[in-house]
Amino acid sequence: MSLNTKIIYGTAWKKEQTTGLVVKAVLNGFRAIDMIQPVNRSTIVGAALLELQEKHNIKREDIFLQTKYTPIGGQDRTKPLPYNPSDSVPNQILASIQKSLSNLHTTYLDSYLLHSPLPTIGQTLEAWKILMQLQDEGKVRLIGVSNTYDVRVLAALQKVRKVQVVQNRWYEGNEWDQAVVGYCKENGIMYQSFWTLSGSPSLLTHPALLTLAKNSNMTEPQAVYKLAQLEGIIPLSGTTDETHMRQDVAVEKLSFASDDVEGQLSTVRDFISG
């Protein structure tokens, strides 16, 4: 399946709570799940998928599953590694995805990302070609990168095969990643954001956004997520609160309502663009 939802549930840092929270997220409307290897072993999400299928008749094909190959520099070496770190990067990726497929009880992933560029563009391209191979074999539907803030890296990958997904921090600390967001819009690349709320306290309290939220009967977080979606961005939500889960999923069908919607939106967009 392709991603037909405008919000993704992020499992980062949830540790032993992951299984229960993924089940709750899906039961509250999420249909896309994002994972990272260092802190969220796919076995935990796999247990949630089995529970959803066996107890709630929500099948694997109803869920968009996305995970990543994390280079050794991003791995927690105190935990079991998904590959032998002495192997070549291509073999690490092949071992890593096989582990993910097994633990998630599936034959394919909807999206597979490089968790970050490798130290050199040559190494990043070498890894990219393995993702291409996995896509050609049908083990992966979409391929992309995360934590990639240099448009030149994306352009280099694009020359070999289209980048389909970019997942980056979208927050005030990097001026809302304007160059990469623009590149993704121009090239039809799905842009996913994390740190969307926690990284942008000034956006959450901006007077124009507060006005939009109040007049539209939205919470401030809902207004930020709606703004992101209007900009063509798919935000990740990592909430552990079921009420917030339902509110986050509901954003897709909400609309801003105000006497001066365009004016308020323009003000907020000017704030983001600096």
Radius of gyration: 19 Å
How many extended strands? 8
Q: Oligomerization state of this entry?
A: single chain
Mean pLDDT: 94
* Helical coverage, percent range: 40-55%
Task: Compute the number of helices.
Answer: 11
Low-confidence stretches: none
Alpha-beta classification: alpha/beta
Distance between the termini: 37 Å
Query: Which sequence of strands runs across the widest sheet?
Result: 1-2-3-4-5-6-7-8
Query: What is the N-to-C order of secondary-structure elements (H for helix, E for strand)?
Result: EHEHEHEHEHEHEHHHEHH
The rough form would be described as: globular
Q: Could you tell me the strand content as a percent range?
A: 5-15%
Description:
- This is NADP-dependent oxidoreductase domain-containing protein.
- Keywords: NADP, Oxidoreductase.
- GO terms for molecular function: oxidoreductase activity, acting on the CH-OH group of donors, NAD or NADP as acceptor.
- InterPro entries: AKR, NAD(P)_OxRdtase_dom_sf, NADP_OxRdtase_dom.
- Belongs to the aldo/keto reductase family.
- The chain has 274 residues and is α/β, with parallel strands linked by helices.
- The mean pLDDT is 94.
- Helix 3 links the parallel strand 3 and strand 4.
- The two termini are 37 Å apart.
- Strands 1-2-3-4-5-6-7-8 form an eight-stranded parallel β-barrel, surrounded by five helices.
- It contains eleven helices and eight strands.
